[in-house]
Amino acid sequence: MTSQPGIAVGARIRALRTERGLSLSALAAAAGIGKGSLSELETGRRNPTLDTLYALTGPLGVPLASLVDFREGSVVADDGFETVLLHTERTAAATSEVWLLRVDAGVTRTSDAHAPGVVEQLMVLTGSCRVDYGDESVEITVGGHAAWPADVHHRYTAVGTDLKAINVIVTPT
């Protein structure tokens, strides 16, 4: 069974891989995912998880929004975690992505380091969140905001109650 979002994302991954002259094996190895899994993603037989998409962004050298072809309203979800692309702004200097996050209470979203120079910002709308990045940690409550270098391992956890937040990711060109 295939889904239309899976087919579109898979086609985008395949196009980016081909543009960069990467074989299926080379991209799978660089992203740390199985070659069979990547093949199923590219053909739309498997829906991508957020972890898988983030694993592919580094080796492909693109922001997450690129993998959903910058389509506003695109949803990427894992258990207890959902993100919706609200807006993307692309300039010669950077790509800025604006995502709405919904995270169930107690769920932690872990992310490997993004490309050099990437910065994330989070503004909490409801709930509270702890962000850990590198050796630093910050707690953000309703109405609060934090920014951190996302080119280091980082994670955020919905503390106490469900979290709703705006996440802005700025990737230098």
TrEMBL record:
<keyword id="KW-0238">DNA-binding</keyword>
<dbReference type="InterPro" id="IPR001387">
    <property type="entry name" value="Cro/C1-type_HTH"/>
</dbReference>
<dbReference type="InterPro" id="IPR050807">
    <property type="entry name" value="TransReg_Diox_bact_type"/>
</dbReference>
<protein>
    <submittedName>
        <fullName>Transcriptional regulator, contains XRE-family HTH domain</fullName>
    </submittedName>
</protein>
<dbReference type="Pfam" id="PF01381">
    <property type="entry name" value="HTH_3"/>
</dbReference>
<dbReference type="InterPro" id="IPR011051">
    <property type="entry name" value="RmlC_Cupin_sf"/>
</dbReference>
<dbReference type="GO" id="GO:0003677">
    <property type="term" value="F:DNA binding"/>
</dbReference>
<dbReference type="InterPro" id="IPR014710">
    <property type="entry name" value="RmlC-like_jellyroll"/>
</dbReference>
<dbReference type="InterPro" id="IPR010982">
    <property type="entry name" value="Lambda_DNA-bd_dom_sf"/>
</dbReference>
<dbReference type="GO" id="GO:0003700">
    <property type="term" value="F:DNA-binding transcription factor activity"/>
</dbReference>
<dbReference type="GO" id="GO:0005829">
    <property type="term" value="C:cytosol"/>
</dbReference>
